Amino acid sequence: MMATIEITKESFFIAAILGFFVRFVIQKIPSFWLHSLLNLPGTIAHETSHAIVSIFTFGKMTRFSIIPRRAGDKWVFGSIECANLNNFNAFPIAMAPLILLATPYFLGEIYAGHQLNVYFAAALWSITGIVCQASVPSAQDFKVAFTYWLGTFAWIGLIAFYLFPEQVQGIFLKII
What we know:
Blueprint: E1 4-6, H1 9-27, H2 32-56, E2 61-65, E3 69-71, E4 74-76, E5 79-82, H3 90-94, H4 103-111, E6 115-117, H5 118-133, H6 139-147, H7 149-163, H8 165-175
Antiparallel strand pairs: 1-6, 2-5, 3-4
Transmembrane segments: 12-33, 88-107, 119-139, 145-164
Keywords: Membrane, Transmembrane, Transmembrane helix
């Protein structure tokens, strides 16, 4: 008989937090190639999120890479290039990895209350941690987003209005 465990929603959020701790441990590994190998699943999730949002916002992705390469004195684990960045799509494409933070919520909704094989549960928690640690936009992502500052502020305004409609309306009424 296989060992099972009952899954709770909270377990996925704990896995996400542990994923961020694992990120710091991985960064301390002296071997670049081992570091790259351990980061590969997260790199795939991170770059794929950019690619998917690029497709939906007409960014015209021209290059997708998850192969680590040297860029000056730093290493780049993955990248995408788009031929049609503009004020409309630069911010969503650059900040796309933040979507990965929804992983614990959705997995919790799907699996909460179910009895799962211990190994399957461990795999789900591992995937959650890996995906969440990859959700942090890179310095290059922020650079791309803020290159198109008008679009960035428009997107931030729209997001703020959606999340906090009364507060944003109050601010605008005070200004006017």
